[in-house]
What does this fold into?
Amino acid sequence: MGSMMEVNDLRNFQRIAATCSMSQATRTMEYAQSNLTERIKLLKQELSVLFFLRTNRGVVLLSKGEKLLKYATVILAQINEIETYYKKMMLGHNAKNHISASRNPNKRWDQKQCLGE
It folds into this structure.
C-alpha cells in the first residue's frame, strides 16, 4: 500500500507554488528540503501527475499543478474554518448556543447503523 496524501502535503504544495522555489518554501516552513522533496515526490506518484517543472531559477507550476493549487486552497480554507470553529467552542464562545445534531442527544453515534449494516 502506498503513501496517502496528508493535509501537510497540500500546505507544502501551496507554499512551493507561492514561492516558486523548493528551497525558499523549506525556509518558511522550517522543514528539511529533502523531506519536502520526498513528500512532493510521493504526492506526484500517488496522483500520477507532474505538478512542477524544475528550472535553474526554481519551479514553474504546470496546468495540473494549477488545478491542484485551486483544490488545495479550498480544502485548506475549509480545514482552517473547522479548526477555528472548534477552537472557539473549546474556549467557550457560543457554547450555550450549540445543540446536538442528533434527534436524541443521549444516543451515541453508531457506525454500523450509519453504514446500513
The helical segments are 7-19, 22-29, 33-47, 63-90, 111-114. Residues 109 and 117 are 14 Å apart (CA to CA). The domain at 7-96 is CATH 1.10.10.10 (Arc Repressor Mutant, subunit A).
